[in-house]
């Protein structure tokens, strides 16, 4: 288990100034990949991209699927990557069954009997009829499958989608992690979309108006980057109506893994302080708000109590202390969480 507690403030593992990972794409290529990855992200347009990809994948123009995906997705302003991924419905293990089914549908449409898969029957049919049947059948089968996959995609994405203004915040925050590498910004994007703690905090408020916010075991600094980005969007007047204005707190994080700290510093720049430190030993600065999200389970019971006592000592009267932790009484759900952390 990789613990966020390892390391120590000021030790040799402290990454110092943020720097980009050694093996990575150049910034322009990463920006292009990010644009391709996130373009046309509404439920309807994602469903359309999948439908187009599935239809192209069902066509018999093998060897040209990539070019068709790029050209048609650009024409209709759809996500090129998702279109191309959906075209892989014609994977090698699926392709023979798909082609046979399309030929049979084509024969049925022109009133010919279904083709028995015997060598003698196969030889009796001319290549011209095979071509006609395949083209006709692929249009029908591709159209039906495209509509089916589009419907499933639309329902799934709509179920998970958030307001457009929140989507823009997700895009803005995850974009901060481009210099930290592809995995970092994909990870942050996924966390912001599927972990409710972050936007619940912004929507409900409850943070002090001033002072220091201390995130213990801050990881890649997602919470800190979100708060910094939310402040910037609020200042520009682009912020969800009815949400409280993000407070102007000093942002401070402590994380035990130097590599993860580098990613946080690349994303945050001068907007926050992120240091390497073992939470069991590193002195905690006074803070009006302290966060301890998914960290305590890395510690023994005695270490948990000691850290909680130290946190209580640095939070002034009227301050806030936010804790999220797996519930040991939750049965199977807790065991799944523990197994995932162990792995």
Helix content: 40-55%
Listing every helix as H and every strand as E from the N terminus to the C terminus, the arrangement reads HHHHHHHHHHEHEHEEHEH
Structural class: alpha/beta
Q: How is the largest sheet built, in terms of strand order?
A: 3-2-1-4-5
| C-alpha Rg (nearest Å) | 27 Å
The DSSP helix count reads 14
In percent, how much strand structure appears in the residues?
5-15%
Overall pLDDT level: 85
Biggest sheet layout: 5 strands, parallel
Strand segment tally: 5
Defining traits:
14 helices; 343 residues; 7% strand; alpha/beta; five-stranded parallel beta sheet
Q: Mind explaining what this structure looks like?
A:
With 343 residues, the chain is α/β, with parallel strands linked by helices. 54% of the residues lie in helices and 7% in strands. The chain has helices at 27-38, 43-58, 65-75, 80-86, 95-109, 119-124, 127-160, 164-175, 182-194, 197-204, 222-235, 258-268, 301-314, 332-342; strands at residues 212-216, 250-255, 273-276, 289-293, 320-324. It has a five-stranded parallel sheet with strand order 3-2-1-4-5, with helices on one face. The protein is elongated, with a radius of gyration of 27 Å.
